[in-house]
Amino acid sequence: MFAKRTEFLKASEVRELLKLSDVNDIISFGGGLPAEESFPVEEMREICSEILEENGVKSMQYAISEGHVGLRKIIVKLMAEKGIHANIDDILITSGSQQGLDLTAKVFLDEGDTILCESPTYLSAINAFKPFYPKFTEVDMDEDGLIPADLIRKLENSSNVKFLYTVPDYQNPTGRRMSLERRKSIVEIANRYNIIIIEDNPYSELCFDGRKLPPLKSFDTQGRVVYLSTFSKTVCPGYRIGWACGTQDIINKYVLFKQGTDIHTNFFAQMQIAGYYEKYDIKEHIRSNVEIYKSRRDAMVAAIEKSFPEEVEYTRPEGGMFLWVTLPECLNTKELLLKSLKRGVAFVQGSAFFPNGGHENTLRLNFSGLNEEKIAKGINILGNLLKEELYAERLAGC
Ligand SMILES: Cc1ncc(COP(=O)(O)O)c(C=O)c1O
After folding, report:
1. Cβ contacts of residue 340 below 8 Å, gap of 6+?
2. Has domain 4-39+284-395 been given CATH number 3.90.1150.10?
3. How far is it, in rounded angstroms, from Cα 190 to Cα 38?
4. Maximum distance among all Cα pairs of the chain, rounded to whole angstroms
5. How far is the CA of 236 from the centre of ligand 1 (A)?
6. Range 41-279 classified under CATH 2.60.120.260
7. Is 96 in the pocket of ligand 1 (CB under 6 A)?
8. How many angstroms is it from 97 CA to the middle of ligand 1?
9. For residues 203-220, average pLDDT
10. 47-63: per-residue pLDDT in tens?
11. Domain with CATH 3.90.1150.10 in the chain
């Protein structure tokens, strides 16, 4: 009785692990939770009272699908600071940037179309695209992000390419940041091969070294980059407020599909985010969040240096929330996860982030959601397990 596309549905391993983080003594590096200490609870309490006093009825009524006008004006300014010259009609407020991904699939994908993406890529983007029966062609990355030469090679050898999906800043799952040269060159390649770029950029503000790079969209002269972002990582994820920015003809298509999905994004939450930006210093708020995340990244890197076996490779992200670990090929992170859970530590096995599978020796660690003490404790447990596993494999001739 179910549609064929339900075959693709399986419980997200990240979600399953998120449930585990409710269990008291599990140290979960699995989810992607922002630090709870960073949520502006008191400020929002005040803003909510003001909205209800001054605009109570409006906050409860149906609203336009495109989104709250004041909030879209704020986003236009945020985009301008990044070198993206948009106007209010180029912006659609979405229910988190996750909805931006769902609408992207609806707007662009026919069965059998090819999506180019980083290898590895964001798990929930794979899940948003899969029900539309695309083929995924993974493009190689290195420390500087997507490799242009490999992108060209894959473009030459693929048919029906609809778009390139990329997360250029502190990518989920690797934490890597695409270099400036590559940003420019990837937009040029997209121009040459006439493909759309979906730039998914939730983490750009969480920059630890002060070296913020311009988004790909800022180099887009042909209206072929759709930029997705969110307030989930800068204010809070529970409100589910994100946005899509693109040319009007593209955004109009997104709006039509959004109407069929949820009519509009929660209007009270949109008013609250707009109120927060109007009343408080968001830059200061982000600065203090970044301090929390940087200190947690430092704690994780220090603990890894101390306790992981030498053969293990890992990224040292300059922003965002994730760190990527590559183990010797003889180790399988699915088996490792079961053993690690028994010792009270969770992570996400890396193979989940490769749409075409493989890479069973990789894993993703989240450093944003736990304090330094828990990070040190959890990494030490994982390090000891890795040493034991590697020792056993060596005895078996690995
Ligand atoms: C790369 C990427 N895109 C999109 C999202 C979804 O964010 P939102 O909470 O805005 O839906 C996430 C969340 O983790 C993400 O990592």
Report:
1. 346, 347, 381, 382, 385
2. yes
3. 38
4. 72
5. 12
6. no
7. yes
8. 6
9. 97
10. 999 999 999 999 999 99
11. 4-39+284-395
